[in-house]
Amino acid sequence: MAATRYRRFLKLCEEWPVDETKRGRDLGAFLRQRVAQAFREGENTQIANPDTCDLMYESLARINSNFYRGKYPRMKDTSFTGVTAEECRMVLATDSLDQMEDAKKGIWKKLMEKFSLKGQDEASKV
């Protein structure tokens, strides 16, 4: 029975989309990592609680198939702020978040980082 569960989770991992804009924060990548940890021995893995495993699979399968999106359709494609889903994706991309973090730094901190890196580079050359 563990082999069947393992194959179902592998199929789910294959179907789950990977969002390249969220490096290190992608749900699909996290899911693959957790499946690899849970099934270290592949089909021979002994599952301590099969009922919980089945419930997790069913929940993840519903999310992946957009079950709730179909069950509870939205009237508009925007949130209460008026921001569309595509604009949210752009803002939440890793590159955008890095740019925002960089913008939060003050001038003094930017100068300190710039000169401290130069000092380290020159010291390593000697």
Walk me through the structure.
The protein is mainly α. It is built from seven helices and no strands. The longest helix has 19 residues, at 107-125. The chain is flat.
Distance between the termini: 62 Å
Mean pLDDT: 80
Radius of gyration: 22 Å
* Structure class: mainly alpha
Secondary structure tally: strands: 0
Strand content is: under 5%
Element pattern in H and E: HHHHHHH
Q: Which blocks of ≥5 consecutive residues have pLDDT under 50?
A: none
A few lines on this structure:
By secondary structure, the chain is mainly alpha-helical. It has helices at residues 2-15, 27-38, 50-64, 67-71, 85-92, 94-104, 107-125.
Which properties best describe this structure?
mainly alpha, 7 helices, 126 residues
Write the layout of secondary structure elements.
Elements (H helix, E strand, L loop, with lengths): L1 H14 L11 H12 L11 H15 L2 H5 L13 H8 L1 H11 L2 H19 L1
